[in-house]
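>> received
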Amino acid sequence: MEGAARVFAGEFCRATYRTPVHGKPGVSLLITCGGARCNRVFLTGTLTEVSDVRGMLRCRLADPTGAFDLEMVQDGKSTLPDTVRKIEIPSFLAVVGRVQVRNGSAGLSPFIRPESVWIVDRTVRDTWVLQTAGITLRRIRALISVLNGQDDDADLKAVIDYYHTSEAGLLELVAMVESALSGVRSAPAGDTEPVQDVRAIIIQIIRDMQGSRGVAVDDVVAQAGLYGIDNGRAQETVRELIREDECYQPQKGTVRLL
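>> returned
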């Protein structure tokens, strides 16, 4: 199953490094200065702009560090543009989508082609910020290890060479993460995290999202992340449901309840 990267807009929008995916002709990854490898992404933010431009629906989705550009083709083959057009501005959204890169006069400009969009609340947005902050800091630590000669990871060396990465530049990314975290609301004193029935949550997600051809497992996993369920646990729960004949796979990478 292809995972969806989590990355802040402030890092994603500066990315210009592309590398081909082994064994997949014509497919490339966009790699950020912080080492995020982006083909598919999972993000949340505030919908701030929606506009029609030459057959495209263009949107801006802001997180605490910047804004993602979203583009949807309005060709009648998908109801997603009409769905997004009806969403009130501002609203918190979660988005799973494919990374695209436009090569214009100002250079490379990354944007997202949404596949799935959900309306969420502030708590879900804050959970995404916390999880993305942790992922980003782990990537930064890995890059610092390579810079200091403590690791010789070839992929990370390529990132460092392309972006001319310095420790000072990575510390700027750390400051970006700290700024994002400063906007996360703290839980009231005495609050405790409820015990979750992960199996029931995954079943409900599949029920809510599936169509006649099921739903992409990656989308189920991404939606589970909004409930604080990590990718590995969500994927294993889906596999258990398949083994126990609670659901089946209409085609590779999708799942549907029986």
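>> Residues 198-257 form one domain.
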